[in-house]
Amino acid sequence: MAARTEQDVVRSELRWSIVVGLTVGAISLAILWAGLVRFINPPSNIETIDPNSVHLSAEFNEANLGTRVENGQVVTRVVATQFSFAPQCVVVPANRQVTLRFTSPDVIHGILVTGTNVNTMVVPGYVAQVHSVFRKTGDLLMPCHEYCGLGHSQMWATVRVVPEDDFKPDADGRALCEKP
Amino acid sequence: MRSLDRLTLAHLWLSFAAFAIACVFGLWQMLARSPWPAPFFTPSNYFLSVTAHGSIMAYVLPTFFIMGFGYFTAERALDRRLPLRRLAWAGFGIGIFGVAMAVATILSGRASVLYTFYPPLTGSVWFYIGLVLVVAASWIWCAIMIVAMRDWKRANPGAPVPLAMFATVANAIMWLWTTAGVGTELVFQIIPAALGWTDSVDVGLSRTLFSWTLHAIVYFWLFPAYIAFYTMAPKAAGGRLYSDTMGRVSFVLFLLYSLPVGMHHLFMDPEHSTGFKFLQMTLTVLVTVPTLFTIFTISASMEIAGRLRGGKGLFGWIGALPWERPMVLATGLAFFMLWFGGGGGLINMSYGMNAMVHNTSWVTAHFHLIFGGTVVIMYFAIAYEIWPHVAGSPANSPARQRLQLWLWAIGMMVMTIPWHWLGLLGQWRRVAQFDYTNPLIAQWGPWVLVSVFGGALLLASALLFVWNLAQAHRRPASAVDAFSFARALHEHDRAPRVLNGFGVWNVLVAVLMLAAYGFPIAQFLIDDRPAALVHRTSGRAP
Ligand code: HEM
Ligand SMILES: [Cu+2]
Ligand SMILES: [Cu+2]
Predict the structure, then answer these.
(1) Residue of chain B whose alpha carbon sits nearest to that of A143
(2) So what CATH class is B3-536?
(3) Mean pLDDT of A146-166
């Protein structure tokens, strides 16, 4: 690089600044594309719930947990608590949009479903909601991925993805995991 | 000069001793997570260990290194005695007391909350108070750096503050802003809860305050590496810094853009809306700018050195560099790791792609590579470079120093490449033990074992590092040339005022922080968010 005079230095810096500007622009576009065009949506619903009475709430009481078809929509509700999930297994149909809703009555947890883009923090006081479409059938792991106490490592559940035809909710619209 | 040497020496030894011990914990954790058995394994020992390892690596190693290096820089770059030296020693005393308090509490098993705290989980209050003391010690350092620069400017009106000191003060100011978040969280939320004064915590608020600190703290750790890139590596290579102005611009940009971006750690959180997540993501993209500037300026500086040494052609200058010098070698290895780490970082910061990797091993691997790799290898190189001036005689032979640096870089690649891959396979972080009888998990086994091997190389390198430094104390003091930082290709006797101080930049930081964090924090105070009951890890009352 010729850098005999100050002008040379400044000129090369300006050229490089343009390269940097273009790179940063391209990165921003790629991120926007991934976020907006592809089906990816982090939980940003800001829905609050009293963590001390989760089990008494209309939505997250025990009889309403797991998967349920409501107005044609598949909704799965799970409570994450030290150190297990309720329920420990949820069933969902393949190739249909599923809405997953989580909350915690005690400390911070988080979940991911292996091999999918389902990932959210579960923060006491809030309902975390994500949507996904599961393409492959079979059992997937759904571990708690945020440290929540000494039993954290044992805290995981199963997401059972079944072919659409085998997904048979009962008269109430509920679908449960069958014993493996 | 001797007493200053002792001040820096005390800080660096505290930093490195804690680091070496934490590496032992690290390797043990690796073993625990692998298909192989680990001695003394219990889940509570695991989380005790991760709390110790994480707290030392994140709070002790970098903080005391930066303080020690800062005192050194203030005296050598400004070429005058350090002001307030007594206060500096008092700060060190407070700091070491805080470290002892925090570490003892962790080892007693009553603070296994990990270095990120995450209330409503709470541990013993002594852990938090110990860390607050460490932060208080670092604030004393910040004040001394600011005073040192101010005194020098008074004595040299209009002259440009030497780049190394300018950058150090930029870091001190950034750190004052940075610690406001976690400091507020500790003092107003966590410590009252740990003491039993309050029985619930607004978790959304606490996560938001912590995120205020969480990104900028990474740049606090990174600054010394960049200071070495700009003001030490070009000289070690036998050349000059291509552009002093570019350095100033980069350091100012770090100050500006490290802070209003912390919410990218909360992309997967339910307590914030899409709007602010997007805003902070956009600002995050701008953080790449100073790093790209740095890559350019340092490559150009190295090219000058290579050509001066007879390097020809487009890439011939690279081979002509004096790679046998530890500072040059470390810079090369750091850049190499930065390529991989930077690429990974782009994925993390993408709004959507983050869902693929959030809280998986990918993240742990990423920060080991970029912080443990790129940054810490420069800490090693800086220590070797300044050791003759600090300890009175040089560290072990350059050959041993090079061996140690190579071991670190290779170990880091061997450990983190499979670790990244495991994250993509869905391995989640912060787990004491995996059930390798599960077929899904069994396929991870071989990759985890490769990581364990990488971790063993790292531990060997860490011990060799400490050994190399210790050798200096076994030799009589030797005469060394005066220390100096790299000079710029074109030197000026004036600098534009905005690039010679921080007044304007502080105002801009305040504006950016208000825009980025004003509403996200205020929302918790405006509407009543449900609070969560405090949970003690120890199960005991405070
Ligand atoms: C001998 C070298 C090292 C080994 C073998 C090692 C290994 C590990 C392991 C196994 C974990 C736990 C991961 C988990 O449970 O998900 C961990 C966590 C961590 N390590 Fe290291 N590490 C080493 C060096 C370093 C260095 C040099 C740094 C930084 C300077 C560092 C910073 C951290 C931090 C901040 C955590 C986070 C703990 C948490 O998730 O709460 N480590 N390390
Ligand atoms: Cu957990
Ligand atoms: Cu960050």
Answers:
(1) B428
(2) mainly alpha
(3) 93
